[in-house]
Amino acid sequence: MTPPEAPLDGNAAQESKPPAVSVCAPDTIVVLKERADFLRAARARRQGTASMMVQGRQRAPDEADGIRVGFTCSKKVGNAVARNRAKRRLREAARLVLPTHGRAGWDYVLIGRAEATASRSFEALQKDLRYALRRIHGES
Question: How far apart, in whole angstroms, are the C-alpha atoms of residue 91 and residue 110?
Answer without folding.
Answer: 9
